[in-house]
Structure formats: structure tokens, C-alpha cells
Amino acid sequence: AALPERWGRCLLGTCYSLWFLHLPGMLLVSSQPAAILHQAYELLVKMQKLRLDPMEE
Fold first, then answer.
1. Domain coordinates of the chain in residue numbers?
2. Which of 14, 15, 24, 52 could be stapled to 47 by a disulfide with Cβ–Cβ 3.0 to 4.6 Å?
3. Predicted confidence (pLDDT) per residue in 19-28, tens digit
4. Across the chain, which distance is largest between two alpha carbons, in Å?
5. Would you call 27 exposed, middle or buried from its count of C-beta atoms within 10 A (0-12, 13-18, 19+)?
6. pTM here?
7. What is the pLDDT of residues 1-54, one digit of tens each?
8. Exposed/middle/buried for residue 8 (C-beta within 10 Å: 0-12, 13-18, 19+)
């Protein structure tokens, strides 16, 4: 907790990464895959604006 801003950015980046890990499954079961893909695009734009790097672990 020495650097709260870094901790928050790490947590937010991890949450976004988890969302994208579930994206293929959400597309398979969704009745509106285009809406989910649009939401995914919007999240990528948000991540770029916040300068969050996607986790690659």
C-alpha cells in the first residue's frame, strides 16, 4: 500500500484482463455478440485513455 495509485492501476488492469479472458465464452452464449464486441472495443479505448497495459500472464 506504499503506492496506492499503482495498486489501483494494477487492480483495474487485472479486472479488465479477466473480463477479456471471459470474452470468448460470453460471445458463445450471447444472443447479441455484436453488442459484446462493441463493449469490448469500448473497454480497449478506455484502457488506452487510462494508459493501462493489458496483463500478459
1. 4-49
2. 52
3. 999 999 999 9
4. 45
5. middle
6. 0.74
7. 578 878 888 888 889 889 999 999 999 999 999 999 999 999 999 888 888 766
8. exposed
